[in-house]
Design a protein that fits this description.
Elements lengths: L2 H28 L7 H33 L9 H25 L1 H11 L25 H5 L4 H17 L10 H6 L3 H8 L16 H6 L27 H14 L5 H9 L13 H14 L1
Helix pairs in contact: 1-6, 3-4, 3-6, 4-10
């Protein structure tokens, strides 16, 4: 990135570290909201540092791949304003797509699950990174390179939208104006996304814009009588273990691959949604939601 872009990222992100997180932490303490505990905050920082280390190592690979495909870019002549607007919209959509895949393909859920494993929800939860995502995240940006967007600008725009994505990890802001929540992801929308309540599972995948969820049927409101319960549907036995917090889902997948099931069934465990089982002993989020709404109708 050029120096100007680095300055923009700094001035956007600095207030989060220097002001907003300490402020939310102090308000939580004095009002006894219990938004923070030291153990969960430490795990969030640890996962972010692991992710940042991997990302730093692989950043050159990501840039090389995007530069390679940019050689074959379509001859598009972009108006300067349209360039940044379309880049923002296209990148935000591709994030939604990546996020949707992460939630609906168990192989990728094994990477993403760490971000959802906390039973707390605060600004530091936004730093609770899916540590292995740098290995494949940049592949989703190849269409942007083919459309003529500079690889440096692609990575810059992703950094900016990530900063926004951190800001919505808060319980302090209950709601935003209606016009805002029709277009943009709000803290309320993202609380739904992190909740383990059955009607909220796999909903609100957007980073900055909620329009993709509204368009593709993955949107859900925060219901008045359904307070979000954060974490996984099956809590971890040791949620603060520095290795198990990253590899627990991989261990479960490994147990399936070592079993005597047919190869085709093992592959379905890899590429079907989390919760899928060949014998119906566990349910996917879609199946759980269907049963939940059917039971509500019967009452």
């Amino acid at each position: 990135m050029d120096e100007f872009q680095k300055q923009i990222i700094f001035w956007f992100s600095a207030p989060i570290y220097a002001l907003l997180i300490p402020l939310e932490l102090l308000l939580s303490h004095f009002h006894h909201w219990k938004f923070y505990t030291w153990k969960e905050t430490a795990i969030n920082i640890y996962l972010n540092l692991v992710n940042a280390g991997i990302d730093l190592v692989l950043r050159g690979v990501a840039l090389f791949v995007l530069l390679f495909f940019s050689q074959y870019a379509l001859p598009v002549s972009w108006n300067p304003i349209a360039y940044w607007v379309v880049l923002f919209l296209a990148e935000d959509f591709l994030f939604w797509l990546e996020h949707y895949v992460d939630h609906n393909v168990r192989l990728f859920w094994a990477v993403h699950v760490t971000h959802h494993s906390s039973e707390e929800y605060n600004l530091t939860t936004g730093f609770r990174s899916s540590v292995f995502m740098p290995f494949y995240r940049y592949l989703y940006f190849i269409p942007l390179a083919l459309l003529g967007f500079r690889p440096i600008d692609i990575l810059f725009m992703y950094a900016i939208t990530q900063i926004y994505g951190i800001l919505v990890h808060t319980q302090y802001i209950k709601s935003m104006p209606r016009w805002f929540e029709l277009v943009f992801v709000s803290p309320s929308h993202h609380r739904v996304h992190h909740a383990s309540n059955i009607p909220y599972l796999d909903k609100n995948m957007g980073m900055a814009l909620i329009i993709w969820d509204r368009m593709f049927g993955t949107f859900a409101e925060e219901l008045p009588g359904e307070k979000p319960v954060y974490g996984l549907t099956k809590p971890l036995d040791n949620p603060h273990h520095p290795v198990k917090i990253i590899f627990h889902e991989w261990a479960s997948i490994g147990a399936v691959l070592k079993s005597k099931l047919p190869f085709s069934t093992k592959m379905r465990y890899l590429f079907n949604p989390p919760g899928w089982s060949h014998d119906g002993s566990t349910k996917t989020a879609r199946e759980l939601r269907k049963n939940w709404f059917e039971q509500r109708k019967e009452k």
